[in-house]
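Subject: Predicted fold for 5-deoxy-glucuronate isomerase, 302 residues

User T.R. writes:
Posting the sequence so we have a shared reference for the thread.
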Amino acid sequence: MYDKSDPRSSLAPKSSTNAMAQTGLIAEQQEGYFYASDPQVLTDAGKSWLHRGHNFLVAYSEAARGATFERKAQIDEYAVILPKVGAVIEWNGTRLDVPGNSLVFVPPGDSTVTLPEGGVLVRLFSTQNTDLAEACGNARAYDTPRTHIPPFQPWPEPKGGWKIHAYSLDVPSEEGRFGRIFRCTTLMINVLEPFEGPRDPSKMSPHHHDDFEQGSLALQGGFTHYLRWAWTSDMADWREDKAVEMTSPSMLVIPPPVIHTTRATGAGCNELIDIFSPPRMDFSMKPGWVLNADDYPMPGDT
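User M.O. replies:
I've generated the structure tokens; pasting them so everyone works from the same file.
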């Protein structure tokens, strides 16, 4: 249910599903309060908080000056978000100087990310990287499989083969386009437009996803995430509505088929990034929504 001013109101309607007939689909949201908890990793390179969903995880780091973050034998593509400071990224003999306010996709294999000036570094991985998945603060939350989420399948490799793909986030808004969406083989990332001040409470967007999670990473400001579990015929599935208040930095993972919507509540700038893994087909089917669609084909593309 989207306000008519929301670009997502143009998405194709979901297939009708008798939710009352589906029982046992209940999972709890996963809350990561980076601002109020100890980091999972503390080294000379800085502090890192790790928090996971079913298919994806975030490593949020406050890096020291000159810190290097290395991945050896990385099994699949991962993402690097540089909200403010630049980084030097190296892979397979290639060195790329990337400015702040950028998003980068790094291929499998050995790679390093170095922050000459230090600062905030966000890396996003698939949970196929079990070393990182096990290091997450909520690693045990997924010991019980989410059987209604399909097994992870990466999307096709980028056109022209593997290389570092870097994109500026200095993208002007456009009527009818939702956020700033990029995809790779493992992830879809929507860097939402910064929101000044609280969101208009008369223009919320309650909706649900049938079979994939949404990660909402707060980089700046404050948010209230509203969650509602649909009733089924089994009262064991029933939950009270929740309003989860989080400032930044933080990460909330919303399970399907929970109805959800988020309201920016900070008085100043509120910045949120939505994360999905693998990429969403419905967003990908909207012309012009995925800003790097020319680099990464969809399944079935020739």
